[in-house]
Write a structure and sequence with these properties.
505 residues, alpha/beta, Rossmann fold, ten-stranded mixed sheet, two-stranded antiparallel sheet, 14 helices, 18 strands, binds 3,4-dihydroxybenzoic acid
Length: 505
C-alpha cells in the first residue's frame, strides 16, 4: 500500500515534509539516531565540464514544509566545480537558493544580494563525501538537516562533495583542495548568482569540522596553488567569512601526544573499528586494555605535549601565559578545566543531575571545580596509543596520508621511528601542514568551535589550542563544550544560525 507522502513524512517528524515526490516511493525509515547513513551504492559520475559559469546552470523549483510553512527554493545540483576533475562522483556541488530571491523578496532582512552563503560539507572520517542535499538527518533523530534549516532562514546554501582517503586520488590534500575549488567557483560567480560570496560560512563535523576550520585559516594561502591549478579551479580568491567547526579532528601531527596527555594512565578502552571511524556511521565499540607496548608508547608521547603547547606562546584572555610543566600540569590544563566547569554549570542550571560525575565538585548549586585527570578516567579512553599515527599503519589518518605507491603512511617522526611495519614510509611534512588548521595565519575573522564534553575521538586539547591560537591572533572565537554531547555535530542549529545572523548583519 502506498501511503500519501505528506502523511508519511508528517508521521516521521511531525514537522517536516518535502514535495517533488523525492521520498514518495522511498521514504526515510525511522531509525535510531546513530543508525548508519543509507549507503548510496551507485554514485553517478557527472561529465567533465567545459565551463565554470553558473549562468549556464538550469535550476529546478522544489519545496518543503517546515513547521507548517512552505519553503520554496531553486535547486542547482551536481555542478562539477573544476575543469580537470579526477572523480566527478565527489567533485560536485549542490546550490540551493530560496525562491523568494528570484521574486525580489526579502527573508529575515536578507535579499538576493545580501544573503550569506552557508557552505556545509558532509565529510566524515576523511572518507569521500558527496554533495549535501535537503534531507532529514539520521544522526539527529531524523530532524531537518542544516541545509533545510539554512534555507528556511533565508540563506543561500552551497554544499560541495570532496574526494577522500580510500581513493588513490583522494589522499591529502585532495579534500581541502576540493572544498577550496568549490569556494573559488562561488566567488568567480558572485556577480551572477544569488548570495554574497564575501559572506561564506563553512560548516562541518569531525574530519569535516577540521576541513571547515582549515578552509578558514588557510584562505588564499599560496601553498595550495599548484593543486588548485592542476584541478582546474576557477580563478578567484578562496578565503571565507566565517567558520563553524564541530569537534574538529585537526592538528593530526600533534594529536597523538595530546591524546596521551589526556589519557595516560587510563588503560582500559572502548575502541572503534577503523571501518567505523566516520562519525556518520554506527559505531561498534570493542573493549580492551592497552598492551605493555601501548602503555610504553603512551608514557613517551605524553611529555612531548608540554613542549608543543609551550612552543605556541599562547595567552589566555587576561594575558596570562598558557603553559604546561614537565608533568603536564599548568595553566593550559586549568583552561580546559574551566571550560568543563562552565559546561557542567550550564547543565546544572538546566536541572541536569550531576551527582554521578565524581570528577566535579558541586557546592550549593555551583560547580566549583573540575579535575581533568579524574574526568579522563571517568569518560574513558577510546583509542590506543598512538591514537592517530598508528605504529601498525592501521588508522584512517595513516590512509589519509598515503600516496599512489603506499596506501598508508606515517605522518609523525615518532610513529615512523616506532613503526611495526617493514618498509613503512612517512609522508612529506608539507602535506601534513596542508591538512592542519593550526599551520596558517587566518584571514577569516569569525569562528564558532564546538566540542562535546563527552567527545573522546581526539583530546579536548585539540579544539582548545585552535580556539586559543585564533583568539591570540585577534579573531572572534565563540568556543564551548556543550554538556553530555558525544562526537557529533549540527545538534544546535538554531544557536548556530543565531550566531551566523549576528556576525553577518
Ligand atoms: C572522524 C573520527 C575520528 O575518530 C577520526 O580519527 C577521524 C575522523 C570523523 O568522525 O570524521
Amino acid at each position: 500500500m502506498k501511503i500519501k507522502k505528506t502523511v508519511l513524512t508528517t508521521l516521521i517528524t511531525g514537522l517536516f515534509a518535502i514535495s517533488q515526490n523525492v521520498w514518495a516511493d522511498n521514504p526515510p525509515t525511522t531509525k535510531p539516531a546513530n543508525a548508519p547513513m543509507p549507503v548510496k551504492t551507485e554514485l553517478v559520475r557527472y561529465p567533465t565540464p567545459t565551463h565554470l559559469d553558473f549562468t549556464k546552470q538550469q535550476g529546478q523549483t522544489k519545496q518543503f514544509e517546515l513547521n507548517g510553512q512552505t519553503i520554496r527554493y531553486r535547486a542547482f545540483e551536481h555542478i562539477v566545480y573544476v575543469l580537470n576533475p579526477s572523480d566527478t562522483r565527489y567533485q560536485v556541488m549542490n546550490i540551493y537558493i530560496p525562491e523568494a530571491y528570484f521574486n525580489g523578496e526579502k527573508i529575515d532582512g536578507y535579499d538576493s544580494q545580501t544573503a550569506p552563503i552557508f557552505f556545509p560539507n558532509d565529510v566524515g572520517g576523511y572518507m569521500p563525501a558527496t554533495a549535501g542535499e535537503p534531507a532529514l538527518n539520521p544522526r539527529q533523530n531524523n530532524t531537518p538537516n542544516a541545509i533545510i534549516v539554512a534555507l528556511s532562514k533565508g540563506y543561500v546554501v552551497a554544499s560541495a562533495g570532496a574526494r577522500g582517503r580510500t581513493e588513490t586520488d583522494g589522499k591529502a590534500p585532495s579534500a581541502i583542495v576540493d572544498l577550496k575549488s568549490a569556494i573559488r567557483y562561488l566567488k568567480a560567480n558572485d556577480a551572477v548568482m544569488a548570495g554574497d560570496a564575501n559572506k561564506i560560512i563553512s560548516n562541518g563535523t569531525s574530519a569535516g569540522g577540521a576541513l571547515s576550520a582549515l578552509l578558514g585559516t588557510s584562505g588564499n594561502s599560496a601553498d595550495y596553488e599548484p593543486y588548485l591549478k592542476q584541478a582546474g579551479a576557477a580563478s578567484a580568491t578562496d578565503d571565507i567569512f566565517a567558520v563553524s567547526a564541530y569537534c574538529p579532528i585537526t592538528n593530526l601531527e600533534h594529536a597523538d601526544m595530546a591524546y596521551e596527555w589526556q589519557f595516560n594512565g587510563v588503560n582500559d578502552y572502548q575502541k572503534i573499528d577503523m571501518q567505523n571511524i566516520d562519525y556518520r556511521v554506527e559505531r561498534k565499540l570493542i573493549k580492551g586494555t592497552q598492551t605493555a607496548e601501548q602503555i610504553a608508547l603512551s608514557n613517551q608521547l605524553k611529555p612531548l605535549f608540554s613542549d608543543y603547547v609551550n612552543s605556541l606562546n599562547l595567552k589566555d584572555e587576561q594575558g596570562q601565559a598558557i603553559t604546561l610543566d614537565n608533568a603536564g600540569n599548568g595553566s593550559f590544563k586549568r583552561f580546559i578545566e574551566d571550560k568543563l566547569v562552565q559546561s557542567a554549570q550550564a547543565a546544572l542550571d538546566k536541572g541536569t543531575d550531576l551527582s554521578d560525575q565524581i570528577w566535579l565538585k558541586v557546592e550549593n548549586g555551583k560547580v566549583v571545580s573540575a579535575d581533568f585527570d579524574a574526568y579522563a578516567q571517568f569518560v574513558g579512553r577510546q583509542k590506543t596509543a598512538p591514537a592517530f599515527d598508528g605504529v601498525d599503519l592501521s588508522t584512517g589518518e595513516n590512509q589519509l596520508f598515503g600516496n599512489s605507491q603506499a596506501d598508508k603512511q606515517h605522518f609523525t617522526d615518532f610513529s615512523e621511528q616506532h613503526s611495526t611495519v617493514a618498509n613503512a614510509t612517512k609522508v612529506t611534512d608539507d602535506k601534513v601542514k596542508l591538512m592542519n588548521a593550526m599551520s596558517h595565519q587566518s584571514p577569516t575573522q569569525y569562528y564558532r568551535i564546538r566540542v562535546g564534553e563527552n567527545d573522546r575521538d581526539t583530546s579536548l586539547a585539540i579544539s582548545a589550542l585552535l580556539a586559543l591560537k585564533l583568539q591570540n591572533e585577534g579573531k572572534q572565537v565563540d568556543y564551548a563544550m556543550p554538556w553530555g554531547i558525544p562526537h557529533s555535530g549540527d545538534y544546535d542549529l538554531d544557536e548556530l544560525f543565531d550566531w551566523i545572523k549576528k556576525i553577518s548583519m
